[in-house]
Design goal:
Blueprint lengths: L4 E6 L9 E6 L6 E4 L4 E2 L5 H17 L3 E3 L20 H6 L4 E10 L2 E10 L4 E11 L3 H17 L8 E8 L2 E8 L6 E2 L6 E6 L5 E5 L6 E5 L6 E4 L4 E7 L5 E8 L2 E8 L6 E2 L8 E6 L5 E6 L6 E6 L6 E2 L7 E6 L5 E7 L5 E7 L5 E3 L7 E6 L5 E6 L6 E6 L6 E2 L6 E7 L7
Parallel strand pairs: 3-5, 3-6, 4-6
Antiparallel strand pairs: 1-2, 6-7, 7-8, 9-10, 9-32, 10-11, 12-13, 13-14, 14-15, 16-17, 17-18, 18-19, 20-21, 21-22, 22-23, 24-25, 25-26, 26-27, 28-29, 29-30, 30-31
Helix pairs in contact: 1-3
Length: 429
């Protein structure tokens, strides 16, 4: 399986003060060995808040796909070691294989929790990064995500997914409810309560669109967290599979009528709807926008079995993209533009995840022999994929790199969590 090349490059001396940059490309994978001891809590600080911070920060680093986070059980350095280079015995960190060392200090200041992060090059003892952030004292996870984002940006020069949001469905009995949460599934807020609400998707502004049976028929609603749901598509027998355009001004969705289902594009309020497919006895579903908003990928059975196709956002230039397998579905177009992730049923009747290169048609398998894996969705930077998996029983949300490496469950409570969608853009905090 293709993995990531993670090479440390030195930027010229006059640029970024010779800060190392992790370039994520190619086929050779070597994550950066990183030591991250527990945060230091200043006098008067809240130990519980520090624990919550540490759990969230550690998960961000582990799931990032670019770090090899070293096991703390093997650390030999003095637990009371300081935050400055002069107080650190770097040989102890080199002994455990660390190439970089990240230290965090937490302090409570009134109603704010303040965190200072320092990053050191273990070989040179040089301090490469010093950054301070703060958050409400009752939001230690928010501070953890902000500091993890600063570390990620330092190494990659791009935004992390740690400040973004996701939406998903929780299945409990006969009910299917829509939730919005932080990227790791924590801090969840329910948008619906009781009934059947499925296939949610996030807009760049934080609105959520989903199909709801609240009036005993499948219509599309748009809702802001804390706001009222507004019906925007009530035509046809079934309106489903809604997707926001990258600028948040349009929606694409599937509308079933009679023996067919066609892809429509409309304004975000449902006005000006126009069908962009026309196969009288065919099913066209699951639209997903290209990052420039000029093309739409979708699923169609016009060739005899469900396959992934691509067309212009006006319905022109339809091109079949997948030819392997006889049941391909739920495409999601990477924000980087190069890949489309999708679910396919294999020869064992199990569902697994694949990507297809939009230009070359090359298909790469990401999961195998671990239950059913479905509904892939890319992170806002295109580096990670979230999905629903039954590998441990029930349905749980997992995350992995876009190459299928470093597969980890989200740190959520047990339950049945379905159809995740990752926000197009990070939420403002």
């Amino acid at each position: 399986m293709k993995a990531l090349l993670l090479s440390l490059l030195l930027v010229p001396a006059l640029v970024l003060a010779q800060a190392p940059v992790i370039e994520i490309s190619g086929a050779n994978f070597r994550p950066l060995p990183l030591a991250s001891p527990a945060p230091t809590l200043q006098e008067g600080g809240d130990k519980k808040a520090a624990g919550v911070f540490d759990t969230a920060f550690s998960y961000d680093l582990a799931a990032s796909g670019i770090f090899q986070v070293l096991d703390r059980a093997g650390f030999t350095a003095d637990a009371k070691e300081g935050m400055t280079a002069a107080s650190i015995n770097f040989s102890r960190w080199a002994d455990v294989g660390a190439e970089s060392l990240v230290k965090v200090s937490l302090a409570q200041d009134g109603g704010r929790l303040r965190g200072e992060l320092r990053l050191f090059n273990v070989a040179t003892g040089h301090e490469d990064l010093k950054v301070a952030k703060d958050a409400p004292a009752n939001e230690p996870r928010q501070l953890a995500h902000a500091l993890a984002d600063a570390l990620y940006r330092h190494f990659t020069r791009e935004a992390s997914p740690f400040l973004s949001r996701i939406t998903y469905v929780r299945k409990a009995g006969a009910n299917r409810d829509v939730y919005v949460a932080d990227w790791d599934g924590m801090g969840a807020q329910a948008l619906t309560k009781g009934g059947t609400h499925i296939l949610p998707t996030l807009s760049p502004s934080g609105q959520v669109a989903y199909t709801s049976y609240r009036k005993n028929r499948p219509d599309i609603y748009v809702q802001s967290p804390g706001g009222e749901a507004k019906a925007v598509v009530t035509d046809g027998q079934m309106a489903t599979g809604v997707a926001f355009s990258p600028d948040g001004k349009r929606i694409a969705y599937a509308l079933a009528e009679g023996e067919s289902a066609q892809i429509y594009v409309a304004a975000v309020d449902g006005s000006g709807a126009k069908a962009i497919t026309d196969t009288p006895y065919g099913l066209n579903t699951s639209p997903t926008w290209s990052p420039d908003g000029k093309r739409i990928a979708f699923v169609s059975n016009r060739g005899g079995s469900p396959q992934v196709y691509v067309m212009g956002a006006d319905g022109s230039g339809v091109k079949r993209l997948t030819f392997q397998g006889n049941y391909n579905q739920t495409p999601d177009w990477s924000p980087r533009g190069d890949l489309i992730a999708f679910t396919a049923r294999d020869e064992r009747n199990a569902f697994d995840l694949f990507t297809v290169n939009v230009e070359t048609g090359k298909v790469t398998r990401l999961t195998q022999d671990q239950g059913n894996n479905e509904e892939p969705t890319f992170s806002p930077n295109g580096r990670l994929i979230m999905f629903s998996s039954s590998r441990n029983g029930g349905a749980h949300l997992w995350v992995m790199t876009a190459e299928g490496n470093n597969q980890l469950p989200l740190p959520m409570e047990k339950g049945n969590w379905l159809t995740p969608d990752w926000g197009i853009a990070p939420a403002a905090k």
